[in-house]
Every structure is written in C-alpha cells, then in structure tokens.
C-alpha cells in the first residue's frame, strides 16, 4: 500500500505537469507522475480525482488547470528543476510551449515585446491576446504579473478601435461640412474652465451615432486624442451614482493609456468596495481626489488631448430635467482638475439639452434626415431600379422610414403613380404609403398578419394560429399558419427575421409609425389580439404577457400591478407603445420619472407657480408616487423641481400629497418648515402604518420624533420590543436615504444598547457608537473616517482620537449640503468660498490633519463639494455653528444646533436627556472630549489671547480679514453681521465670564466654556470667546492687530463693559 509521503510526491508531479501545460490529457499527467513504477488502479484513480479538483474540462478528453492552483503549484516549484522527474513528455502545442517559455525563460525579451505591443496595439491583436491569456494563467508565478491590467487595457483599446473601424468600413457618405465643423471644434478645445459641447440633434435612424463614430475615427487619425464615451443608453450610468461614471471613465482612461492601468485599476477596486458611501449625500457630484489626480497624471504624461463623447442624451433627460445640467457640472471637475485640453461632442434626440445653460452648448446642428447620396445608396441596396431612385429621394427628404416604404412601393408597382411627399408631417405620408403597400397584397391572410401582427411584439406560427387569426376572425387551413409566417419573413421592408429564435419581429420604426394607426382604426380587433396574447404568453414570456395586459387599458381594463422585476425587462420602445397611464406605471416601477410627472414640471415654471386654490384638486397619485420615487432614489434636485411646481401648499399630513411633501421638506434640509408640522404629527399619533403611507414616510416620522421628541421615542422603544424592531427594520432598509447615525440611531442605542456592541450590528448604529467605551466599534468608525478622508486626499495624523473620527462622520453635512445645493444662499456661498480658500489658517491649529489636507482647486470652484470636504476634515458642526452665529439663513440655525448636539454626543457627552446607554464614555462630564481638546490647545498657546482673536476673526469673516486689510468694521464683509451678531458676542462673553468668576484661572475658563456650550454656542466660537472673555479683560490689552480688530468687530458694548 502506498505511503502518504509517496502519494504527496506523486500528486505533486501530476500537478506540476498540469501547471506547465495549457490543455492536457488527464492520463498523461498520471503517467508523468507514476512513470515505470508499479501501481494499483486505485492509485491512478485517486490521483485523477485529486487532480480533477484543480482543473476544468476544456474539450472532450482534455483538462486545463485553474489559475489559482496553477499559480500555487508554480510558486512552490524550483524553476531550475521544474522539468525534471516527469516521465511523460509535456504537450508541445503552441500555447503550452509559450506558457513554459514565459515561466522559465528570461523575462527581458517578453518585457520588450510587451512594451512594443502596448505602445501600438492595433496591429498586434493576436499577440496581445496570447500574452494576456498566458499571464492570466501564470498569475503571480510570472515576474510580469503586475502588467496584466496594462495588457488588458491595450487589448480593450485595440478591440474598440477595430470594431468601430469595421462598422465604418462599408463607407461613410455626406455631412462633409458638418464633419469639418466638428473637426475644428475637436482640434480647438474651449478655453473656459467649464464643460461646453457641440450638440448633434436628430430623429431616430438619421445617422447620429454613425456620424459620431466617423468623427471620432477621423480625430484619432488626425490628433490621436484620449477618447472617452458616456452612452446613457447603457444600463447603470446615471447621475445619482456618480461613482459609476467615475469607474467607467477610469476604465476607459486605462484602455487608452495602458501604462497607467495598474494604478487606476487599484483605485477602481477601492472605490467599488468603499465603506464611506454610508456618509455621502446621494446624488453628490463629487469626484474622488485619488481618481482626479491619477487621471490628470495619466493624460498629461501622454501629451494627448481628451475627446469626450456623450451619446443618447435623451435617455439621461428622461430621468429628470436637472440631469443634463448636473452631467456638465460633473464634467467640470475633470476640467478644473487640469486634466488637459478637453473637447466634448454630444448627440441625442430632439432638445435633450434644453434644460442646460445655453452657454454650455457651443454649437448645435440638427440632422433632419439622410443626405441625398446616403439615401441613394440605401435605395440601391434595396434593389430599387436606378431610374426611380432620384424620385424617391426627392419625395422622402432623407426620412429613413419613407425611403424604405417608397422602395417597397416602387418594387411592387411599375410606376410611382401615388402622389406623396414627406412634407411637414412625414408620419402622414408614411401611413399613406403603408396602406397603399398593404392594398397591393392580394392574399388576405398575408395582409392581416402583416398589418395586425404589429400589435404583437414578436410573431411565430403558433401566435398566428392562436392569437392573430382568431383575433381578426380569420379561418386557417392546416399548415396555413406556417405558410403565412414564411411569406411574412420575405417582407424585409416590414419585419426582421430572427431565424435562430423562430420569431419574426416588425421593424422598430415601422411599429413606432403604424401601431398608433392600428389602435385608432381597428380598436376592436386590436383589443381581441391583446386579450388572446395575454393567454398565449402566460408561462412563456412574462414581460410580454404584462405588455399585452397593459395594452388592454385602451379597451377599459383596469391597471394591473407592475413588478419592478418585469418592468426592468421593458425597453424604452415597449414603454412608448403603451397607454400613458400604463407607461407611467412601468417607468415608476423601473425607478424612472413618469411621463406625466415630467410633463407637469416641464409645463410649469417655478417662478410662475400659483398656490393651489381651496377646493382645487391636489397632485394625483402618479404625481405623489413620482415625488416619493425621487426621494427614495435620493434625487433631491429633481424632487425639488417637482415639489416647487406642485407640492408647496400640501400641508395636510392625512393626505398622501401632504405626507410626501413633509418627506421632501425633511430630506431637503428645510427643517424649520418640517418642524412646524411636528405638532400635527403628534396629534395624528405618529401614524406610521395607516392610510397607505410608505416606508419613506415611516422613516421621516421616526427621524423627526428622534430630533424633536427623543426621550419619548427612546422610552417607547425600550418598553415596546415590536416598535424597536420596526424602527430597526425601517432604518435598515433606508440605506442612502436616512440621516446616517443621527438621533434615531442614538434612540435605538438608548432603547437597547446591548444589541449594538457586536460587530454584526454596527451598521445599525455606526458613528453614534463612538461614545461607547468599545474598542471594536471605535475601530469601525476609524475605518469609515479614513475611507471618507481618502476621497479628498486628506492625511490623518497618528494621534487622532475617537471624537475626531466621530466629527468626520457628522451626518448633518448631508441635509445642509442638500439645502445649499437646492437653495444656493448667496450669503452661505460667500462664506463657504472664504472658508475653503483660507482653510489653511485653522487647519493645523484646530483639526488633526496633515499638510496634504488643503482644499484642491477643483473643490474651491464648487462650494457644494466644499461642504463634503469640510465634513471629511471633521468641521461640519464648527463651520455651520460659526456661520449661524453671525448670519440668519432659513433652516440653517436649526441644523447648526443639531449638528453641534450630535458632535458632543458622539464625542462621549450624552446630550439627549434621560439616562445614557451603558458603557457611555463621559456620563458625568459636562464638556465633551472634542471641546476640551480644542480648549487645551487654545489655552496653552504661547500667545493665547492673540491666537483666540485670530481664530474668532477667521470664523467671523471666513478667513478673509487680515491686518493688511486695514481697520475694517464688521459691515465691510457681511452687512448682516452688525448689531445682531454683536449682541450675541456680548451675551456669550458676559454670561460666560460671570459663570467662571471667582473659580481660579483653569476652573474659571471651564465654567465660562460650559456656560457658552449651555446657551448653544458652537465649539468654533465658544473656545476663542472663552479665552477672550477670561484673559483679555481687566486692563490687559495686548498690542496686537488681531485683538484690536476683534474689539472693533465685537462692538461698543463689549469694549465698554468687558474691557
């Protein structure tokens, strides 16, 4: 019997044989291991079984070793003896020989070959594929393993160019002047630091995409730009998840510049699994700093310009009126990151870019149809006699459908005796031609199937027999259905024959033009066909069964429920064929705006909005669901447009319209308005389930209760386990919509804190748990904090503590960022610009971040992203509290107070009333650790008073005042700072000084600081004012320009009564 050591030696040989081969015969591997040794049949069987676990079948009788065991085997093999001890010759096929040469040979020549191929991949497609396959098989067993991303990118680029060239190889005709205009636009990128496009508009089928492909081909030959394409007809590209756009563009940059593929590939993996998504605003247009820098370096090192192609923009606009403009704002970031010269060409149907600022559209051209030469070529391809081609070209005016119908009519008749012209209504000419062609079909059966078959999206012999024929009361003979299908297949002007599937489909442009005519002219027959099609497709094609059921709404059937799964199977053409109410239902189920909702917001200018009069009907169910859907998706920009048009007067929470309006006010940061309805909520008993309210409404009600009635909610959840479970479920399902780790998380923690100390539950509580004395939960918060900071290239210093992690994850950056993005307060815009520009003045003294933490140039141009950047620093409560101390802007003071309350609680100082959870860090402390850390640093400064004055002035004037500016009053920068802010300064300093009086220096300072915290002064203001109140009085007047300026700003009452 074979010993264990002998068996391991034999299986090792067999695995080595397999690893050094690409495709091999299993018995050859066994023979290579056993050689001339005598063995039992069972030994060979066990060897085969062991080896089979590491292999897959490539073709009958051959195996291929999987990459992971191959890599493991070869890494454990001494290359100098890799070929020794094998009793059977290794396979000599080309792939296996190349694999062994790559593994065993000198990597230098292969590296040189790789460099040449990557530099010019277009004529080496086969060699690239061979290298990629070999490197992938060897894995880390080859020294060139790290070149795999580069190699794959080069191959992708070659594939893309070859496919495009092949598509264009049939020849491109016409549009010479337009192509020259586009070439000039591409070769001379706009100099403005904002995205501008050359827009091509036109109907379907007129050659927009073909034209764009040709222009790109010519640009490659002329300038060799880095070509990037965003085609919004592709599922997954949208403005609600800009990371998906970033990942796609990074992939394309890798393909265009393969030498940078490894770094970009690493970033793509990091972004895909990034944990910081919990703390980002949905719909944020933020571009991660790492990506911006990597793509800038890649493009600049290449020395090539960038050509960005935007296609099928009508699909993007279908998601909402604000989406096209937001796309351009997103592209702006690439331009501002100094990626290099960028030209943009765009295409779409109709006025897809109408919502965009006209300045964004550098040039616009409308393709009204095919040019005459292209039309003539099309007709020639349809075998139209030469003598009739020009007549049809003249009549069709480039309309592809009319060209095809005119060709069919010309082939069916001896002369074009019918008088038709495209005119201003080409659809009428199309209907006229279609009827004329049908009238020439002598066989009633063929005519009926050709015409009424349009009602069905696909037809086979069974469909003719069971649906169309009985639907139009047509009797069929045995075998006639098959004969009719055969005849239908020959009508290429009308149908596309899918021979492999057995189905025949009517051409899409024919359906679009003629289907409405059938429903209008023959509603009874169309309804009967739809009714029979419902039964026909049952158990066969569920989405087509649903399609025909929805079409029956035309004949009075009720609207049926549309599942999201089936709705996603509908393409845009299917939806456009449905009645309006059915189309809306499918779009809503797919997560898109309803057509009705889009038309409502299009038809009403917000500035012209009139309040809904008493007795006037509120928004209907479709409008309510539209707004609800937008909120669920986090598309708050588009939601606000609909809200302003139809929902501003909806305040009755007993109605669906009032409930969803409240949700919008809350989620958009309009908290002052929302809080006024809290009393109405209490009167309704916080009704969560009744009257068909959605999970979104339940979430908002719970969050409002946690904000405005925390102790009552926490007490109820601690006594009612089902309420707690329901809250946890609602909160858990709301990822991306909820106020992450806000007071609702604290309330659940207070109700049952023990449930959140285990790692598997931390996502329910997140950063709210940093106040707990639990090292594992603190580490989770640290991980989230680091991930968020990495997006902005912010360095975290080693001594950063738990309260610093929490400050970074403050959830109130989300509602205030949304509020600013929607309302664009000029005062806040001015303040944010100053803070971002001058942030280095407080970066070192107040926040634990390294030198790399200064705002990037592209962030300085976008204050909305500045809010997200300040959040990543940990400054949300500080800048927001400082701004609201000096300025009164709707909703901001409430958000500032809540942000500061959250900061203190997450830092360990319980601020929600009642008993804190078990293991809370600072149950008896009055100052939180974050506040105390700032105070320690401030009071220990060598020139504490002067530094306090400097920091106060920074937060007062957003860093824009300096001694060089001269002795300016408060009104010099912000007129509103005046008496109101001076009264606040005096109150805080006088009450604080009184609270610290007689307690000694340190305790006096702490007493003053506690009083300022009690009356709601944010940390950024309270700490410097404490120093200024306690140390700058009593005749001490430091000879310092900052202190002098502070006294001027603070006002006469502070100067006369405190100094």
UniProtKB/TrEMBL annotation:
Residues 172-316 form the Orc1-like AAA ATPase domain. It holds the Pfam family AAA_16. The keyword Transit peptide does not apply. It comes from the Bacteria. Keywords: ATP-binding, Nucleotide-binding. The keyword ATP-binding applies. InterPro entries: AAA_16, P-loop_NTPase. One of its GO terms (molecular function) is ATP binding. This is ATP-binding protein. It comes from Ectorhizobium quercum.
């Amino acid at each position: 019997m074979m010993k264990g050591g002998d068996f391991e030696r034999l299986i090792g040989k067999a695995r080595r044989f397999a690893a050094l081969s690409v495709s091999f015969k299993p018995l050859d591997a066994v023979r290579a291991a056993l050689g001339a040794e005598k063995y039992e049949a069972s030994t060979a069987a066990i060897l085969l079984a062991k080896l089979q676990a590491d292999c897959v079948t490539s073709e009958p009788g051959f195996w291929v070793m999987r990459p992971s065991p191959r890599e493991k085997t070869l890494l454990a093999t001494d290359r100098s003896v890799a070929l020794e001890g094998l009793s059977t010759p290794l396979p000599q096929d080309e792939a296996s020989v190349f694999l062994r040469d790559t593994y065993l040979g000198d990597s230098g020549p292969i590296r040189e070959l790789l460099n040449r191929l990557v530099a010019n991949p277009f004529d080496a497609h086969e060699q690239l594929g061979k290298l990629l396959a070999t490197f992938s098989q060897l894995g880390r067993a080859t020294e060139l393993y790290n070149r795999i991303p580069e190699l794959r990118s080069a191959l992708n680029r070659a594939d893309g160019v070859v496919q495009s060239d092949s598509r264009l190889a049939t020849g491109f005709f016409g549009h010479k002047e337009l192509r020259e205009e586009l070439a000039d636009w591409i070769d001379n990128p706009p100099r403005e630091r904002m995205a501008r496009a050359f827009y091509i508009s036109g109907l379907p089928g007129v050659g927009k995409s073909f034209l764009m492909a040709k222009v790109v081909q010519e640009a490659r030959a002329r300038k060799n730009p880095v070509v990037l394409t965003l085609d919004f007809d592709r599922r997954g590209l949208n403005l609600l998840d800009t990371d998906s756009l970033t990942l796609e563009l990074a992939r394309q940059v890798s393909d265009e510049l393969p030498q940078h593929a490894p770094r970009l590939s690493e970033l793509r993996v990091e972004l895909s699994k990034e944990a910081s998504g919990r703390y980002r605003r949905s719909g944020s247009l933020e571009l991660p700093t790492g990506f911006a820098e990597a793509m800038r370096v890649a493009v600049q090192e290449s020395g090539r310009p960038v050509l960005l192609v935007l296609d099928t923009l009508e699909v993007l606009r279908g998601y909402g009126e604000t989406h096209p403009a937001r796309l351009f704002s997103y592209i702006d970031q690439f331009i501002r990151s100094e990626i290099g010269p960028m030209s943009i060409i765009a295409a779409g149907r109709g006025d897809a870019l109408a919502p965009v600022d006209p300045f964004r559209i550098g040039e616009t051209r409308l393709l009204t149809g095919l040019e005459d030469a292209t039309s003539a070529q099309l007709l020639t391809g349809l075998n139209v006699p030469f003598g009739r081609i020009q007549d049809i070209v003249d009549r069709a005016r480039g309309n592809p459908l009319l060209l095809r119908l005119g060709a069919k009519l010309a082939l069916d008749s001896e002369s074009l005796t019918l008088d038709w012209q495209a005119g201003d209504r080409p659809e009428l000419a199309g209907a006229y031609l279609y009827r004329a062609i049908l009238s020439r079909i002598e066989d009633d059966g063929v005519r009926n199937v050709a015409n009424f078959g349009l009602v069905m999206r696909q037809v086979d012999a069974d469909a003719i027999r069971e649906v169309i024929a009985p639907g139009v009361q047509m009797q069929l003979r045995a075998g006639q259905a098959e004969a009719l299908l055969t005849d239908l297949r020959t009508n290429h002007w009308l149908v596309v024959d899918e021979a492999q599937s057995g189905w025949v489909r009517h051409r899409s442009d024919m359906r679009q033009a003629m289907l409405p005519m059938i429903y209008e002219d023959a509603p009874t027959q169309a309804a009967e066909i739809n009714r029979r099609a419902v039964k026909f497709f049952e158990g066969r094609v569920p989405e087509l069964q649903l399609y025909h059921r929805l079409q029956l709404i035309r004949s009075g059937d009720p609207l049926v429920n549309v599942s999201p799964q089936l709705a996603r199977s509908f393409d845009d053409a299917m939806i456009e064929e449905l009645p309006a109410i059915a189309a809306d239902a499918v779009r809503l189920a797919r997560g898109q705006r309803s057509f009705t909702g889009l038309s409502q917001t299009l038809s009403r200018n917000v500035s012209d909005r009139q309040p809904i009069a008493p007795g006037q009907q509120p928004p209907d169910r479709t409008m309510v669901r539209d707004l609800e859907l937008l909120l669920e998706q986090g598309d708050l920009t588009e939601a606000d447009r609909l809200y302003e048009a139809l929902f501003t007067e909806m305040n009755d929470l007993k109605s669906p319209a009032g409930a969803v309006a409240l949700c919008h006010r809350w989620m958009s940061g309009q908290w002052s308005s929302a809080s006024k309805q809290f009393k109405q909520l209490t009167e309704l008993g916080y009704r969560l389930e009744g009257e068909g309210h959605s999970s979104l409404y339940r979430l908002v009600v719970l969050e409002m209760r946690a904000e405005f009635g925390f102790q009552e909610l926490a007490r109820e959840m601690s006594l009612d386990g089902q309420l707690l479970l329901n809250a946890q479920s609602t909160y858990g399902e709301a990822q991306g919509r909820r106020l992450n780790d806000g007071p609702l998380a604290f309330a659940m923690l207070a109700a049952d804190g023990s449930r959140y100390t285990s790692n598997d539950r931390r996502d329910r509580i997140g950063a709210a748990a940093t106040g707990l004395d639990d090292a594992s939960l603190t580490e989770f918060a640290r991980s989230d904090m680091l991930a968020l900071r990495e997006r902005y290239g912010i360095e975290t210093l080693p001594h950063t503590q738990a309260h610093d992690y929490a400050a970074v994850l403050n959830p109130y950056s989300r509602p205030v960022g949304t509020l600013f993005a929607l309302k664009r307060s000029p005062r806040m815009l001015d303040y944010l610009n100053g803070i971002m520009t001058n942030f280095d003045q407080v970066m070192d003294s107040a926040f634990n971040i390294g030198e790399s933490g200064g705002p990037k140039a592209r962030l300085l141009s976008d204050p909305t992203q500045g809010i997200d950047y300040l959040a990543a620093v940990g400054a949300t409560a500080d800048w927001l509290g400082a701004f609201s101390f000096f300025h009164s802007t709707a909703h901001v003071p409430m958000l500032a107070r809540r942000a500061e309350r959250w900061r203190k609680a997450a830092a360990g100082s319980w601020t929600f009333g009642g008993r804190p959870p078990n293991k809370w860090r600072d149950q008896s402390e009055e100052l939180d650790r974050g506040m105390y850390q700032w105070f320690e640093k401030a009071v220990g400064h060598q020139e504490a008073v002067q530094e306090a004055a400097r920091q106060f002035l920074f937060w007062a004037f957003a860093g824009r005042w300096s001694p060089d500016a001269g002795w300016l009053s408060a009104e010099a920068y912000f007129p509103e700072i005046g008496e109101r802010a001076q009264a606040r300064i005096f109150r805080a300093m006088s009450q604080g000084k009184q609270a610290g009086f007689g307690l000694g220096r340190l305790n006096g300072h702490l007493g003053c600081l506690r009083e300022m915290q009690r009356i709601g002064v944010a940390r950024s203001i309270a700490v410097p004012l404490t120093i200024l109140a306690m140390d700058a009085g009593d005749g001490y007047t430091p000879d310092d320009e900052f202190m002098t300026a502070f006294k001027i700003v603070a006002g006469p009452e502070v100067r006369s009564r405190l100094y």
